[in-house]
Design goal:
By secondary structure, the chain is α/β, with parallel strands linked by helices. It is 26% helix and 30% strand. The protein folds into 2 domains: 3-89 and 156-178, ATPase, nucleotide binding domain (Nucleotidyltransferase, domain 5), CATH 3.30.420; 91-153, no CATH class. It has helices at 35-44, 63-80, 138-144, 157-169; strands at residues 3-8, 13-20, 24-31, 53-57, 84-87, 99-104, 107-112, 117-121, 131-134, 150-153. The protein has a 5-stranded mixed sheet, sandwiched between helices. It has a 3-stranded antiparallel sheet with strand order 6-7-8, with no helix packed on it. A two-stranded parallel ribbon has the order 9-10. Helix 1 (35-44) packs parallel to helix 2.
Length: 186
């Protein structure tokens, strides 16, 4: 039976979740601003026996938040001797076969679902519409890029679960010493 702990502190909507072969078992959401204070306390509150892997969101996201979640996941993976999986934090927001965009300060991060490819882009001139974005970013993006269509997307545990289960089955584990984080330098 596959059972994995997911840690994602890359954004304001941070979470810790526990999945098994079939579905989400438990999920605790919290503000990314308190990740450094509450993350270990939250992990302790979850029944984490018999884990197959630990998964962590590697961004794009805030510099500090991304590092807190990744370092916690790497430390637990090493201490418990369980494999580590990393995933792009835009996976939960990207409908199958589509693209999602995250605006952070002046940076634009584009995630393309079919290729599991993320890139930091300068402008949207070369990018086709529509693009999925979190609802809080629609007004600013629409004002900045009036020639593009932005569709609202919400976080979807099912997409995260399907992606991570596929990665587990393929044994696409991450070497913790080579974990590459996606964030804007402070």
């Amino acid at each position: 039976m596959t059972k994995f702990l997911v840690i994602d502190t890359t954004s304001e909507a941070s979470f810790v979740a526990l999945f098994d072969d079939k579905a989400l078992i438990q999920e605790i959401s919290f503000s990314g601003k308190v990740a450094s204070k509450r993350l270990l306390e939250i992990i302790k509150s979850i029944n984490i026996s018999d884990l197959t892997a630990i998964c962590c969101g590697i961004g794009p996201g805030s510099f500090t938040g991304t590092r807190i979640g990744a370092m916690t996941a790497m430390t637990l993976s090493f201490a418990w001797q369980i494999p580590l999986l990393s995933y792009n934090s835009l996976v939960p927001y990207t409908p199958k076969g589509e693209r999602a965009l995250l605006k952070q300060g002046k940076a634009l991060w584009l995630y393309e679902e079919p290729l599991h490819k993320v890139s930091q882009i300068i402008s949207l001139q070369e990018t086709l519409s529509p693009i999925y974005v979190m609802s809080s970013q629609i007004p600013a993006l629409t004002e900045a890029f009036p020639n593009h269509t932005f569709l609202e997307t919400t976080f979807c545990f099912e997409r995260t679960f399907a992606f991570l289960k596929e990665q587990c089955e393929a044994k696409a584990f991450t070497d913790p010493r080579k974990l590459e984080l996606l964030y804007n330098a402070p």
